[in-house]
Design a protein that fits this description.
By secondary structure, the chain is of the alpha+beta class. The protein contains 3 helices and 10 strands; from the N terminus they run αβββββαββββαβ. The strands form 2 sheets. Strands 3-4-5-9-8-7-6 form a 7-stranded antiparallel β-sheet, with helices on both faces. A 3-stranded antiparallel β-sheet has the order 1-2-10.
């Protein structure tokens, strides 16, 4: 199995820790597949996908949801969260369900929230960052499903 496929499978498994519920966002959303994931993307939201990152941006640019995945390279989730928080000049990471979470402001002064979860035994972590606020954001996050 290629590293890209394995990364996407690990990303999908880790998303199960992050998704609180599996609700659709309503009639204004379209199911889209991204590797092993299916997401109800709200109408007019922009999507950008690379090997390491998936970003959803609101049509008015008021909010974005970014999902990243990386190798732990032997580091603990705590150390990874601390390192990312320091790099982003964020608050001290606090233990959260399945990992760590912290807040920061991006370069545009927008309040952001990031959670870091992962599987240290498998050697992968995932970061889910929410920037800004939009009425469709929660529905977007809740709609993330793993394709079996």
């Amino acid at each position: 199995m290629s590293k890209k496929v394995m990364n996407k499978k690990v990303l999908a498994v880790l998303l199960l820790f992050v998704a609180v519920a599996m609700f659709a966002t309503g009639a204004e959303a379209a199911k889209q597949s991204f590797g092993p994931l299916t997401v109800d993307v709200p109408k007019d939201w922009k999507v950008a996908e690379t090997d390491e990152q998936l970003t959803f941006t609101a049509p008015d640019n008021s909010a974005a949801l970014t999902i990243i995945v990386g190798a732990t390279e032997g580091a603990s989730l705590s150390d990874i969260a601390k390192g990312i928080a320091q790099e982003l000049k964020g608050s001290a990471p606090q233990k959260a369900e399945g990992g760590y979470a912290f807040a920061f402001k991006n370069a545009n002064g927008i309040n952001c929230y990031m959670s870091i979860v992962g599987d240290e035994a498998q050697g992968f972590y995932m970061g889910v960052m929410q920037a800004g606020d939009h009425p469709q954001m929660q529905g977007l996050m809740d709609s993330i499903e793993f394709n079996e």
